[in-house]
Design brief:
Largest sheet: 9 strands, mixed
Radius of gyration: 18 Å
Helix content: 25-40%
Order of helices and strands: EHEHEHEEHEEHEHHEHHH
Length: about 270
């Protein structure tokens, strides 16, 4: 089973080497690695080139943003299973081999989502983060998370839904998962920690700069999944689902209480 992994990078040389090494050091699986860089000037491109043909494709061309860059990368992919890793995140050792075992044990699964460690700029573990089952009601209310760097999906499914929405500048990963669900895909949870999700001063998760875009996406996500606009009473439903979410995963609830939420201020 061949994996195609795409990394999009723009002026992230401080983290990029750790990302690349975490992909190229995977064992027990065939990996085709594709790095997309629309125009870095911080030495990132020279770093990518230093790996020679260990990186199958280095895509150095302008794009229309992250989702477009990902589409350009996957357009060159030839693997059976796709995944994508941001240039400030890393895979855990053995992550891809573990994902292979999951797909082979569950041949009807189209998408598998593992868990992750949240880390800081110096690779210190801040907390654990769990992927949650894709339940439309929970996702529509923002009460279910699937960890992007720990998510892998079959290539034919990605092509069937048309890839990423290039107009989405905040939640292209979340929208892709919704499209997967609406296409009839079977989405499962792999109960392993497959990646490290980095939080630092410049990361979108760690700032408020994308809040307006995220709010717009959440409204669209709700309407796609529920088939109607949100109503005032949905706030009550959301509160009930939040409580149920924490009760159903006490480990995650305890982690949040003890170590704080994902948005960690420096």
């Amino acid at each position: 089973m061949k994996f195609s992994i795409v990394t999009i990078s723009f002026n992230q040389v401080d983290f990029l080497k750790r990302t690349i090494e975490s992909v190229l050091s995977q064992t027990g699986v065939e990996v085709e690695y594709i790095v997309v860089d629309p125009g870095s000037i911080d030495g990132s491109r020279e770093l990518v080139q230093s790996y020679g043909d260990r990186i199958a494709h280095a895509v150095f061309e302008k794009d229309e943003g992250p989702s477009d860059g990902l589409n350009r990368g996957f357009a060159r992919a030839t693997g059976e299973v796709f995944g994508y890793l941001n240039s400030d995140d890393t895979f855990e050792p053995g992550a891809l081999a573990s994902a292979v075992r999951f797909f082979k044990a569950h041949p009807k699964v189209d998408v598998v989502c593992g868990h992750a460690f949240a880390t800081d700029a110096a690779d210190n573990h801040l907390r654990r983060v769990w992927s949650e089952p894709f339940r439309p009601l929970f996702v529509a209310h923002g009460m279910a998370v699937q960890i992007q760097p720990s998510t892998f999906f079959r290539a034919d499914l990605f092509r069937r839904v048309g890839g990423f929405n290039v107009n989405n500048r905040s939640n292209w990963d979340g929208e892709l998962m919704v499209e997967f669900h609406l296409s009839g895909a079977e989405i499962a949870i792999g109960d392993e920690f497959w990646s490290c999700y980095r939080l630092h001063d410049a990361s979108i998760t760690n700032t408020d700069k994308a809040d307006a875009l995220i709010a717009t996406w959440r409204k669209r996500c709700f309407e796609k999944l529920m088939g109607r606009p949100a109503r005032p009473t949905d706030r009550v439903v959301g509160s009930a689902l939040r409580l149920l979410k924490h009760v159903s995963n006490p480990k995650a609830a305890a982690e949040r209480i003890l170590r704080g939420p994902m948005r960690k201020r420096g």
